[in-house]
């Protein structure tokens, strides 16, 4: 048979597919026919055969009873965890959670937990760490806390062993390898910690994970910091308990030299604002958010506009009207480069949602009309697209108001404030003017906007 073929290439193919073959057989024949072959493949003298065979452990365990798993599969797992080849250990480490789930809670708690702990301390600990968040769902929480959580602290501060070599070149190469391995471990553990937080409970997360998360937020590796920031919504439910520990670090990261980190901070703000409320946003997050509109990197500025609908949803139109819109007006007025004004107009377009209040819509349209008269063509055509979206939101009855237009024009310009009725009335003439603009891009976008508005 192929499993016993003299050619390693054939045995590798058999090892890779033995799980599929077992699934296609009747269960009563698996123990007698498949398990001896599986045992032989996992003990093959070629590690490339063993690692492919061990990848099928979970698939085969799912087909067997708990007693059969304990008798046949468990010895194979123990052997593979201590295999002389790191590639075989890596193969079983990366899929240890599916294997444990297939073997059942009893075997996992009594036998596999020790194997998993060993993998978390071996060369393959980064691969094993990816199973952490799943593992808590199949063993008792107190067992997880006593056996696994203590290892997280050590993993989070993983350091390279001293490399001693007679040859300087070899020492240099090995040092690079260990540095890369450390970064890989830190990235894997940071993800696992964030995924564990909702499952551990507030008290355990605060006492055990909070110090680790703070450590990761200040890690020198960019990807580690990003892993925490991108998963901040996982902590949203208990953010009030974490804010005193994590928020100062997040505020520091808003000034990080890496633009991806600054962007991730901005994208995490909706989760923080939704959990901590408008008052906290006003006192601690508003300045961070507003500063993103003048960031030197366009992706960061764009991300600030993208989260506005979420802020509008969690904080409400009145809050945005009173606290965010004045700052956007200020940025528009004091902009040094035209891209900042363009970004503000993009923000208005993002806020063009049905839940926006009439007062907020009024201010948005007023600012967009100002943009339509900007001296920079790029600002004008973005303003035309923004006006298209805003006019679609305006109630038709507003435009058909019975108050005399000329009288209101005198009042509004004297006070410097447009009513929504007048904003809508000014929108179409403004777009009509832009249709005759000297810039062809402005003419094109404004004509599309005017057609959409006139319907």
What does this molecule look like?
With 455 residues, the protein is mainly alpha-helical. Among the domains are: 1-128, Alpha Horseshoe (Leucine-rich Repeat Variant), CATH 1.25.10; 148-253, no CATH class. It is built from 28 helices and no strands. It has helices at residues 8-23, 27-42, 47-54, 57-61, 66-81, 86-94, 96-103, 105-119, 125-129, 132-135, 141-147, 149-156, 168-200, 202-217, 222-229, 239-253, 259-276, 278-291, 298-306, 308-315, 317-334, 338-350, 358-372, 377-393, 396-399, 405-415, 420-435, 440-454. α17 packs parallel to α20. The protein is elongated, with a radius of gyration of 31 Å.
CATH superfamily of the domain at 1-128: Leucine-rich Repeat Variant
Distance between the amino and carboxyl termini: 73 Å
The CATH architecture of the domain at 1-128: Alpha Horseshoe
Specify Rg, calculated over alpha carbons: 31 Å
CATH C-level category of the domain at 1-128: Mainly Alpha
What is the overall shape?
elongated
Protein structure class: mainly alpha
Order of helices and strands: HHHHHHHHHHHHHHHHHHHHHHHHHHHH
The tally of strands reads 0
For the sheet with most strands, the description reads:
none
Give the helix tally: 28
Average pLDDT, all residues: 78
Q: What do we call the CATH topology of the domain at 1-128? A: Leucine-rich Repeat Variant
């Amino acid at each position: 048979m192929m499993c016993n073929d003299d050619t390693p290439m054939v045995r590798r193919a058999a090892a890779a597919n033995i799980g599929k073959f077992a699934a296609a057989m009747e269960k009563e024949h698996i123990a007698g026919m498949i398990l001896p072959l599986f045992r032989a493949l996992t003990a093959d003298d070629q590690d490339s055969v063993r690692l492919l065979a061990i990848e099928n452990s979970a698939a085969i365990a799912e087909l067997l009873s708990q007693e059969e798993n304990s008798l046949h599969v468990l010895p194979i797992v123990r052997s593979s965890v201590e295999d002389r080849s790191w590639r075989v250990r890596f193969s079983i480490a990366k899929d240890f959670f599916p294997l444990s789930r297939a073997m059942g809670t009893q075997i996992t708690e009594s036998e596999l937990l020790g194997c998993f702990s060993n993998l978390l301390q071996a060369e393959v600990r980064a691969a094993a760490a990816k199973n952490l968040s799943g593992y808590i769902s199949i063993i008792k929480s107190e067992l997880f806390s006593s056996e696994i959580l203590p290892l997280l602290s050590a993993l989070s501060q993983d350091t390279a062993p001293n490399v001693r070599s007679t040859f300087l070149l070899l020492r240099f190469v090995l040092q690079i390898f260990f540095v890369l391995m450390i970064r890989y471990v830190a990235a894997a553990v940071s993800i696992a910690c964030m995924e564990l937080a909702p499952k551990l409970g507030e008290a355990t997360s605060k006492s055990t994970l909070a110090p680790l998360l703070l450590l990761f937020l200040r890690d020198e590796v960019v990807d580690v910091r990003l892993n925490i920031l991108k998963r901040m919504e996982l902590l949203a439910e208990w953010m009030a308990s974490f804010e005193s520990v994590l928020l100062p670090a997040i505020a520091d990261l808003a000034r990080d030299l890496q633009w991806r980190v600054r962007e991730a901070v901005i994208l995490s703000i909706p989760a923080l604002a939704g959990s901590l409320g408008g008052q906290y946003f006003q006192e601690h997050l508003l300045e961070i958010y507003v500063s993103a509109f003048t960031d030197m990197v366009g992706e960061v500025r764009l991300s600030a506009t993208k989260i506005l609908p979420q802020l509008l949803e969690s904080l409400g139109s009145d809050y945005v009207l009173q606290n965010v819109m004045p700052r956007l007006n200020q940025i528009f007025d004091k902009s040094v480069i035209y891209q900042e004004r363009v970004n503000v107009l993009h923000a208005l377009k993002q806020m063009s949602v049905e839940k926006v209040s009439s007062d907020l819509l009024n201010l948005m349209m007023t600012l967009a009309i100002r943009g339509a008269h900007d001296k920079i063509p790029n600002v004008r055509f973005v303003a035309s697209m923004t006006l298209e979206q805003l006019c679609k939101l305006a109630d038709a009855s507003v435009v058909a108001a019975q108050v005399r237009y000329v009288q209101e024009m005198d009042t509004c310009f004297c006070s410097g404030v447009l009513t929504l009725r007048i904003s809508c009335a000014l929108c179409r003439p403004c777009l009509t003017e832009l249709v005759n603009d000297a810039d062809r891009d402005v003419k094109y976008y404004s004509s599309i906007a005017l057609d959409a508005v006139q319907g």
